[in-house]
Amino acid sequence: xxxxxxxxxPSDKQEKILAAALQEFSLHVYVExxxxxxxxxxxxxxxxxxxxxxxxxxxxxxxxxxxxHVKLTHFLANRDSETSDDLFTFHxxxxxxxxxxxxxxxxxxxxRNLFLxxxxxxxxxxxxxxxxxxxxxxxxxxxxxxxxxxxxDMLEITQLITQELLLSKIVNNRTDEEIxxxxxxxxxxLKPESK
Length: 195
Fold this sequence. Notes:
The chain has helices at residues 4-7, 11-27, 35-42, 46-52, 56-77, 87-103, 108-116, 120-139, 143-151, 154-172, 176-190.
């Protein structure tokens, strides 16, 4: 989590630092990325970096959280608030949101490098970010949809399927169309039969 000094910066300066971080973390896996390159690109003194963040990892996860927050806010703003989703319709919209994020040229190398940098510690951090993001998504839904989503036993299975498919997009460089076909096929097996 960034320090108060970073949070107090004008938004344009925050964006410049995060843009420099995005560039560096997209070009290199985490261990090969350079704080020196980030501060050079952002045009800030080295001492200022440590006034804004604890370390490189703090900046890394701040960047990922910020991207998810901005994209999620956009997703919720453009979502039809009158739609009464069942679990599967809701989850499909979240899956499409995630797929679009991984396909976005601006972020796909960042997420590829995140996968290549993954270890137990990073996995736990990412899980926390995803859980917080999920809570944020659920808080933006109509009450009956939120209750349905939280109570469903299928949510865990659905999330495992989507994680596997999103990972296969990154690892195997599969197209969005291939992923969506497989997603629909697998989720069809979980849906209750229509009467």
